Amino acid sequence: MGNFRINASAAPSFILTGFPGMEATEPWLFLPLLLFYSISIVGNTLILLIVKLEQSLHQPMYYFLSLLSVNDLGVSFSTLPTVLAALCFHARAITFNACLTQMFFIHLFSWTESGILLAMSFDRYVAICNPLRYATVLTSARIVAMGLGTVLRSFVLILVFPLLLQRLPFCHSQNILSHAYCLHVDMIKLACTDVSLNSHYGLSIVLLTFGLDFVLILLSYVLILRSVLAIAAREERVKTLNTCVSHISAVLIFYVPMVSVSIVHRFGAGLPHSVHILMSLLYLFVPPMLNPVIYSIKTKEIHRRLLKMLFRVKF
């Protein structure tokens, strides 16, 4: 095998994957994919604009929502070119460096989103369980520190991925990926050497970040639920829980597709490859597209401002 080994300096290229056996119908995916991207980009941009323009929304909850929207825009812009090119125009070749860059940003935004959702759960916990201390706990300086800490954590952890990948030799000049975009776990499968270091590091940071974040989010809602159940009036309990609906929805639409993709990836060897592609696209499209929709519908202040902006409705 030594004669076929190619390292990163020899510029191996990668081939993105579409839907096998459906090449003739793939161009028809252009309009729905463009629609999904448009909803994500326009929706998250509107959220940012509303929070910026509406003085009453200059609060911790909406600052974190703005971070989430910026992150979702990052996901859309980092994947838009290759997904549309691969699935709609059959332009599936991508260079090693381009694939490495896309992989870095996709994972960076995924890890950052998990941290933002954790910060938002902390915001809801303080607002409901310690409302009198809300302004003193979530100061502007602390919000900035939490935001920068989330991004820095993701950056440091994910920076190791390209460094580990650059040392790997690849067996072919053209390496076929199993998705329409580049992922670390996908790329290391194509290396013709031991990748246990990459695998162990990837698994470790998944457990230490996604796993820990989810446990802390779950714990915050256990404490929130205990506090809500102590409220005597039923109307007040419902009103309080309603302030958490948008965030709970955002948590579910982020973690459920991610866990589903992981399960299909690990245990779905017998499934058609098109199922793997479809699940990976759902993981990519669902959170950035649905987050602004959910917050626009379920968050009263955002909903009112959006109607006022689009239709000149007065309240």
UniProtKB/TrEMBL annotation:
Transmembrane regions listed in the UniProt entry: 28-51, 63-92, 104-122, 143-165, 203-224, 245-265, 277-297
Keyword Membrane assigned: yes
Signal peptide: none
Localization of this protein: Cell membrane; Membrane
Membrane topology, as annotated: Multi-pass membrane protein
BP GO annotations: cellular response to lipid
Record keywords: Cell membrane, G-protein coupled receptor, Membrane, Olfaction, Receptor, Sensory transduction, Transducer, Transmembrane, Transmembrane helix
Main localization of the protein described in the UniProt heading: membrane
Protein name: Olfactory receptor
Provenance organism: Heterocephalus glaber
Lineage of the organism: Eukaryota, Metazoa, Chordata, Craniata, Vertebrata
